[in-house]
Structures are given as C-alpha cells and as structure tokens.
Amino acid sequence: MLLPIRKKQVFPRELDGGGRVWFTVKGWNYAHDALNVQFHVVNESGKVVYPKDGDWISKYLPEGASNYTLDAFSWDVYGVGNHTYTLVARISGEEENDSATITIKPVNGTELKQMGFECDDIHFDFKDRAYRASLSCQVYLYNPSSSKMSVKDIAVEGNYSLGQLRDVTFGTLGVGKWSIAPERFGIDSQETKNITFSLPLEISSYVPISGSDATEVVGKDGSYTEVTFTYTLGYRIGDGKWYHYSDTVRDYVKITMDAKTIAADYILSGAMAYISAWTLLKVPSEFKVKVKGVEFNPAGVFLGIVLYYGKDKALETLANWWGD
C-alpha cells in the first residue's frame, strides 16, 4: 500500500552560521475514504525533535486530497556541517521515511551570535506540598571568529514575562531564582554551544482551599503561553578585551499538569471543608473560645491543620504512584 505522504518541503536548505528552517508536510489520499496519518520528525541521532513531547502527531487526510498540508512547523538548526531530519509517517501498520539535509556553512565575524533558542513545555506536578514546574530554555551561541571565545557573567534581566501564567487567581503563582548552566565556558572557532536557563515555578495548595488554586491551572491545561526574557553576558575573543552582549528569548510553550492529582485534590479539599465545618458547628459551646469577641473552636483549627498536612502527604503519594 502506498502511503499518502509526499516528500516534506524544507526551506531553506542552506544557512550561514545557522538559523530557522521551515518544514511543511504534504499528503495525497488515493483511498476511498479519509485516512488517519501519524508522523513525527527525528534528527540524525534518532531523537524526535517534532513534536516536542516526542510522541506522534495524528492528522486526518480527507478523501481525494491532493497536495494537502497536514502540518507546518519551524525548527532552529545550528552547528556548522550537515544536519539530516527524517519524517517518519505511518498508516495502517505501514511506515514510510523521507529525509532532508540542511547545510550550515561557516561565516566570518568578530561578534558572538545567538543562532537559536527553544523552551520546553511546562508541566505542573504535585511535589513538596505544592504544584511545581520548571521553565527551561536553551540558547545556542555561535562563535564566527577564528579564535576561541570566552563567556562569563551570564544573567537574566528582571523584566521577564510568563504570559498568562501570571494570571493565576489570588496571585498564588510563585517563582524562584533563575539558574544558568554553565555559568562560564569557552566556544571554539566556528562552534556552537548552548546555555540552559531554568526558572522554578509553584502554585500553593492552600488558598483558600486547594481546589480553587488548581482550577486556574486546570483551565490552562493544553493551552499555550508566551514566555519572554532578556539575558546579558560578557565575552572576549582570545585574550582580548571583554565585550557586553544582550539578546532576547521569546517562545510559546504548552502548559500541562498532573490532572489525576488535581482531581484527588478537589475531592480531599471538599471532604476537609465538610469535616472542618462539622467540627466547628457540632462542638459544645463550653469548648469554644472567644478572642476579641470572635468565637472559634481550637479543636477545629487544630483539626484543619492536621487535615491539610495529611492531604498534602496523600497527594504527593498519589502523584508519585501515578507517575510510576
């Protein structure tokens, strides 16, 4: 059976120093009904580079389709030399491969260049009593000079943006400090090296009950957000003087989360709210305490603390169990 996949279109096939390449996947359907086509793209080492999650993309090809665009995407290609990308497509148990080679040619220059960047998708998981994730981005730097470059003093400016993630209700999105690896390094002539920028994220499970916090993340499951940050660094060629360099990363990333744990969070939070309310209402009046005219139940407060601590332990256990 002939697979209805035509050679993918790739442009450009040659780049000076590196840059962005556009891929288009075309299809023809010679069958008498619509077909489900699965495909992904791998590099020369066999790693899936598209889609980001390493899975298969599934698309329906209409009956009688000709020169039909199944998908289109772009990819940053860097590193002097030839880079081969292979489209792997399958339908009804049959598989077909089609490869394209992009050539990166060396360029001459005396200034450090950012040739590309990519940010990983953000996945929230329950760990250490909060929903936690990490924004991780790789930046690819190219040395076009004839001598080795040294890079140091890498930093992220404070006015970065996380897009719609900043809109989590009650302001419960917490961010940690940027980590950068490596912190200093060298780049040989005509070589490319990458820097990884990572930012820890967390959403508390306490305000006012954890389900309300999680709702904001659930609403964003599967959606995309734009992340933007500017970094600075110092570099020099050989033993020459140091120069300042600055550039910006702007990418769209997909937001996902541990949905099973969030569902359990809703259930446990509802049960806790009921138990706490029952304790406050049913306790005899002689066991209640008044502070500045406000009456409350110390046992109910204590029970609430115990329940919330126990809930977090239960959620972390479930998250680890479901993740195995």
Explained architecture:
- This protein is of the alpha+beta class and 324 residues long.
- The protein contains 3 helices and 21 strands.
- The protein has helices at residues 210-218, 259-282, 298-323, and strands at residues 9-11, 14-16, 18-27, 35-42, 48-50, 57-61, 68-78, 81-91, 94-105, 113-119, 122-127, 130-142, 149-156, 173-175, 179-181, 185-187, 192-204, 224-237, 243-257, 289-291, 294-296.
- Helix 1 (210-218) packs antiparallel against helix 2 (259-282).
- The longest helix is centred in the C-terminal third of the chain and has 26 residues, at 298-323.
- It is flat, with a radius of gyration of 26 Å.
- Mean pLDDT is 79; it is low at 207-213 and 274-281.
- DSSP, total strands: 21
- The CATH class of the largest domain is Mainly Beta
Mean pLDDT: 79
**Rg to the nearest angstrom?**
26 Å
Order of helical and strand elements: EEEEEEEEEEEEEEEEEHEEHEEH
Q: Which regions contain 5 or more consecutive residues with pLDDT less than 50?
A: 207-213, 274-281
What is the fold-level CATH name, i.e. the topology of the largest domain? Answer: Immunoglobulin-like
N→C terminal distance: 39 Å
What does the largest sheet look like? Answer: 10 strands, mixed
Q: How much strand?
A: over 45%
